[in-house]
Specification:
By secondary structure, the chain is mainly beta.
Length: 772
């Protein structure tokens, strides 16, 4: 019994003394890592064989042996920090570290990896460009897309009627995924279904980058590589992540104005940004933008007939007489030949946007964050002139000299992000968020008529119409986890693990215009609908939803000080066509601090947009036969429409892609860097808007006549969306940058070049229902 009591007593004494003895043999170093007043999150802190990273407040804590310890701190884009720290047994030492930027190391980037280790764009395995707001302003452009058009390699944009579609590496706008603060930004409701040759992004749906107030933007990262394995659909050509400002205690005002030498196209924009500290635990950053753009006119003089038409098979003398009579009427009515010329150039635009971005710390390990933005834009532009000689289109009681249609388009963008993120006690970083975005497009027309209605109403007929509305909505919910494991067995320097799930709901809704904007009241003699832009008819109304669920896993590891590898995989399921699996392998080998090789291989996908699946449109188009304009009703039928099925068009499915990329980064001198990246992108089953099938083909006429006999809807021409082609795109990007800090002045330059070529391969998929 005594031995048992002695044994128990000895165990209790050892239990009590052991932790004290262990504590007496250890010490702790705590600190904060900053760049002046800016905290640096996820900086790497190393002592001996132990490594940790700073938290969301720039803080760190690491256990060390008592005595003199060499503390090493690294952060992408900054010079390595080294300091010997003396800490006695059982004590806690505190250091405040102010990092110094390294002009050679490039800019810190976040995309595409969700790694907690910060890297510069010269050390990533794939090419990423970073542009600060200051750099974008130096382009002297007023819209974000045009700024990027001037400064970003492989980026292109064009000015369309009421949008500026953005593309990367020569692909379509819907091959670029847009993020705002790492969250998927909503698409536009409007489908670019125009039929102009060479029109950028024809048959695709893009994002409206200009709906984000420019004064709220801190910087923009552009990933020039396929990233479906990271982010899912739409990331075939690359990803653009827009980082919003988080500064406090500062107010900035941006003002821009000017016009063209021709005396038109006046532009004016003003942006205001203000940051507010929230009890030193958070921030609220507010931004507001106002823009105005006057139209540009580059027309000349109309030389054709206005009031009369040349007679069919008329002789030269008859034509001369007709022209003389028309000229006499023009002179008598005081008609100006410069009036009919359409506006060629920019539309008139007025835009107002507001954005609020904020965050607030709740405790030491948790933070709330939110973003809300709204943008209202009003655009007006002229349609083609309708001449009094075109009696099927013009009510001459209202418009003796014809009319030029005026179209008014109002787009409204609303988005919101709310979430919570933090770090668990075992160093898992987690984030739960929900984001919503919507884009609506309203159309109205003035100075026009419905010719089939107006001859019965005469001078009392309406001249303005509400044409309808299109809306796209997107709700995204996601939860993400990430943790960095350092100094693993086997000599691996670091391993970052990230995973998460996402659920997304999409809705596309088109709403009809007023009856007179689309109805034909007297189909025998006069054209129905609003001239210039017909309204959405009841037959074209759409209200469709789809659900998307996704799960991903990412592994990024510094296998050695030189070799970095990145693995990613993602599975997504779409309720309207099924699932897709994407994977990616990327690597970078650093031969020295001045030269690295990098490359990637991945497969990916792009889901057909809601508009490509469900858009329904009916418009009157014109063809010229001799001196006569012949109207034709052209329709785009959705993928599930009976006419589409009658033509043998299969259901839309996802585009499948393979991306290959290889390149190098080099620091040529202490202040000059160079990157060169070659790429090869293959897209199978690419979704395109078909050519025009006309009723001149007997087989087409039979199908359309059968539809008319059932529905009473007459259609002369038809188009569809289909997975019709396969393409291969190859090219090379080259970027050279220089940067010098001379006293308080920064001197820099950038040279960028891109060479891209896209070719078709394989057979173009056609229907077996047509043989001619």
């Amino acid at each position: 019994m005594k031995k048992f009591i002695l044994y128990i007593t000895t165990c209790i004494i050892l239990f009590i003394l052991f932790p004290q003895s262990a504590l007496s043999q250890t010490a702790i170093i705590k600190g904060i890592v900053k760049d002046n007043e800016e905290i640096l999150v996820a900086a790497t802190v190393s002592v001996d064989n132990k490594t940790t990273i700073t938290d969301h407040k720039g803080r760190f804590s690491i256990g060390v042996k008592p005595g003199n310890d060499l503390l090493i701190v690294t952060y992408a884009g900054y010079k390595k920090f080294e300091q010997v720290v003396l800490v006695n047994s059982g004590q806690v030492g505190f250091v405040e570290i102010n990092m110094i930027k390294d002009e050679q190391m490039g800019e810190v980037v976040i995309v595409p990896s969700r790694s907690l280790i910060q890297r510069s764009n010269l050390n990533t395995p794939v090419p990423v460009d970073v542009f600060s707001q200051k750099q974008l302003l130096q382009t002297n452009q007023t819209s974000l897309t045009q700024m990027l058009n001037f400064i970003a390699p492989s980026f292109n944009s064009s000015r369309e009627v009421f949008n500026e579609p953005a593309t990367i590496r020569g692909l379509d706008p819907d091959h670029v995924l847009i993020l705002m603060n790492r969250k998927r930004y909503h698409n536009m409701a409007w489908m670019n279904a125009g039929n102009l040759k060479g029109q950028l992004g024809r048959g695709s749906v893009g994002n409206d980058l200009n709906s984000i107030p420019f004064s709220a933007i801190e910087k923009i990262e552009i990933l020039r590589d396929g990233a479906s394995a990271h982010y899912g659909s739409d990331a075939i050509a690359g990803v653009m992540d827009i980082h919003l400002k988080e500064s406090t205690g500062k107010t900035s005002i941006q003002l821009h104005t000017g016009q063209y030498y021709e005396g038109d196209g006046e532009k004016f924009s003003i942006g205001i940004n203000r940051g507010i500290s929230l009890n030193k635990k958070g921030f609220l950053n507010l931004s507001g933008d106002l823009k105005y753009q006057a139209p540009t006119y580059r027309g000349g003089e109309y030389l054709g007939l206005v009031y009369n038409n040349y007679k069919k098979n008329s002789s030269h003398n008859d034509s001369v007489i007709t022209k003389a009579q028309d000229d006499a009427t023009i002179k008598a009515n005081g008609f100006s030949r410069q009036v009919p010329v359409s506006t060629v150039g920019n539309s008139q635009l007025t835009s107002f946007g507001f954005l609020a971005n904020g965050g607030y710390s709740v405790g030491n390990r948790t933070e709330l964050f939110w973003t809300a933005t709204v943008n209202d834009r009003r655009i007006s532009y002229n349609g083609a002139y309708r001449f009094p000689k075109d009696t099927a289109q013009v009510n001459t009681i209202l418009y003796r000299d014809g009319f030029k249609v005026r179209i008014y388009t109002n787009t409204l963008d609303v988005s919101g992000i709310a979430g919570i993120r933090g770090e668990s006690k075992n160093n898992w970083h987690w984030e739960l968020s929900s984001s919503y975005g919507s884009n609506s497009v309203n159309n109205n027309s003035e100075n026009t008529n419905n010719a089939s209605q107006q001859y019965s109403l005469g001078k009392y007929a309406p001249t303005a119409f509400y044409l309808g509305k299109q809306v796209y909505r997107q709700l995204t919910n996601d939860i993400n986890f990430a943790r960095n494991f350092s100094q693993l067995l086997g000599g691996i320097k670091s391993l970052n693990v990230a995973s998460g799930v996402e659920w997304r709901l999409e809705n596309y809704h088109s709403m009809k215009g007023e009856e007179a904007s689309w109805e034909t009241y007297n189909p025998k003699n006069k054209l129905g609908g609003s001239q210039g832009f017909a309204g959405i008819s009841p037959y074209d109304v759409v209200n469709k939803n789809r659900n998307v669920a996704g799960i991903y896993l990412e592994l990024e590891s510094d296998l050695t000080d030189h070799f970095l590898i990145d693995l990613a995989g993602r599975y997504e399921y779409y309720s309207d066509f099924g699932g897709n699996l994407a994977g990616k392998l990327a690597a970078r080998y650093k031969f020295s601090d001045k030269f690295s090789l990098r490359g990637s291989v991945s497969n990916g996908f792009r889901a057909p947009s809601m508009q490509q699946r469900f858009l329904s449109s009916t418009q009157t188009r014109w063809t010229i036969s001799g001196a006569t304009q012949i109207p034709a009703i052209r329709a785009i039928f959705p993928n599930n429409h009976p006419v589409t099925k009658a033509f043998g068009i299969p259901s839309l499915t996802a585009e499948n892609t393979v991306n290959l990329s290889v390149g190098f980064t080099a620091a040529l001198l202490n202040h000059i860097s160079m990157t060169v990246d070659a790429y090869w992108i293959q897209i199978k089953n690419r979704v395109v808007l078909s050519g025009i099938f006309t009723n001149n083909n007997p087989e087409v006429k039979h199908i359309l006549d059968s539809f008319y006999s059932i529905s009473g809807i007459k259609v002369d021409q038809v188009q569809f969306f289909a997975n019709a082609i396969n393409t291969r795109t190859k090219g090379i990007d080259m970027v050279i940058k220089g940067n010098w800090n001379i006293h308080k002045v920064t001197l820099g330059f950038a040279l960028a070049a891109n060479f891209t070529r896209t070719n078709l391969f394989g057979n173009i998929k056609t229907t077996d229902k047509l043989h001619a």
